[in-house]
Amino acid sequence: MTALTTVSDFPHRLIDDPDVGIVMPDGIRLSARIWRPEGADTQPVPAVLEYIPYRKRDGTLPRDELMHPYVAGHGYASVRVDMRGNGDSEGLMTDEYTQQEMDDALAVIAWLAEQPWCSGAVGMMGKSWGGFNCLQTAFLRPPALKAVISVCSTTDRFADDVHFKGGCMLGENPGWGAVMLSFSSRPADPALRPDWRADWLRRLEAEPYLAPRWASHQSRDAYWRHGSVCEDWAAIQVPVLSVGGWADNYMNTVGHLMGKQQSVVQGLMGPWVHQYPHTAVPGPQIGFLQVAIRWWDRWLKGIENGAEADPAYRAYMLHSEPPSAAPAFRKGHWVTETAWPSPRVTPEVWPLAPGRLGGQGAPLEMAVNTPQHLGLHTGEYFPMGLNAEMPGDQREDDAMSVCFDSAPLAGGMDLLGRAVLRLRLTSDKPFAQIFARLCDVAPDGSSVRICHGMLNLRHRDSMENPTLVPVGTPFDIELALDEMGYRLAPGHRLRLALSTTYWPFAWPSAEAATLTLEEGSLELPRHSGSTGDEWTPPAPEAAPAWRHRVLRKGAAARRIERNLISGEVSLVIEEDGGDAENLDHGLVSGDTMREVWTIRPDDPLSARVTITYEQRLSRGNWSVRTLAETNLTSESGHLAFTARLQAWEGETPVFDRDFREFVKRDHL
Q: Which of 114, 372, 403, 609 could serve as a FRET partner for 354 with CA atoms 20 to 30 Å apart?
């Protein structure tokens, strides 16, 4: 990892107000923490807003302390707001990206612009949920919003979020439902909210279990179109800096925005997981906060620093190296592109022949029907760190797939962009899915996943209007794999691996279909190459870390278990976050999570997952705890979702609710 330099001497001395009330038009008070320069009341500064549900008092506080004082110290009011119904804010939360959430964002921005310490110019920045809603807010064009920085986000809620991908329901759909059931179950801090207990009970009573709702929308309907900024590329008119990472699964957004958006857009892609680039693994980390200040100086302060002339796209091209599910660093080099699509990228079509990629194409007549447990080495949808959450060696999954290998690449190869797979195939079932992985195979046989793509074949012609898969009749599909930036070493092979299963990344179809491949090709985005780094990013910097004391260390485990009697295969993930005390305000927080994903290789209806989350908060003699357990099992005609949410004040139970809902498998 690149060493993070701590900076405490800023151009401006700061005022840190931990609980500023911003009252919404309906009377609900949102809680904001605001860092701003001393003297801003007489010399107003622009405001930069981060607006998320993840609790500024404990949840994101460690990262907030690194970022927001740094931004404020460079002459901004840096504002961190808890969304309605979360953290220390009043109200109730009903879903993600609701109209109420967007209306509140507009009200917060208008409030900020009117404050005596604000110049009237507002920027918006966020990662993941915050990256989504800063684009969604820009889409609504509030007059005070002048620019955004969106990190690890998407422009299409159906195509590229945690719920569906290529029409396939992701394992992260029930996974994220468990996360939100747990995360939103916690109360406000009694030190800030004397009414915390009554408010907490209201939250618990109103708490939704969202996974069934998300799963019930199995096509790109109005539910998903809401909040998808791709619905109107012309709507966003402010400058956008879009940031992503190759180890995250929101890597397509940068290319979408650069290729479609009509405002000023710049893209930045690194090797990172689902984190901000000054702390994210794998390294190299970069000075993301310096890049952000340069962006804000140009668009919020009007400083002519040339930021608008920076490269349209700065991308870190990964280099071949041995596979690892937890690399602290990835070898590579930075390339810069003046436009996207890049004039340095040329589409190159490689035909498929039995077992062979490239050269002379040939009829295939190859059957694909893979075991249900294929995919255990895929990693997380959005890995967060070094707990073996990234794709590992693909050899075991490759051995169960239908593979097409190139000849050894004598001169290596540079790839930047999206590969497109075109196939003619037949199916023996009206429900079927296909998954494609592009891998780098070293001379020793080890296999590194470069990128992947997937398609629910009912969505082969339309995400909005799925149709039955033709049985026994040939049909054509086109599947765009995810964006990639990759340099294959000389002597390595390029492998295309196809499967009908991808557990637990994607939930299996109700029946195990056999697909027969008749012919196909793979179009590759061949980059003309570069001799070395074309951009030297600033070194990572941040404000001082939060003051805390570890009371109990955490631990993590990730393992594959096989039951030799039942034949079941399970992926078990355990993460104990430990417990830590905030030395500034005394709140002790901790969490523990366990996931078990189980399936039999020969039975798609054996798929099931159980996820358990415990959340803990305490201070002195006060303590609360919540426990959320969720389950998803499969039937031929429906998905069965169950959950239980419990809460304790001290040792006294105060809440207990069971959830149960069946979702019809319309297209799954």
A: 372
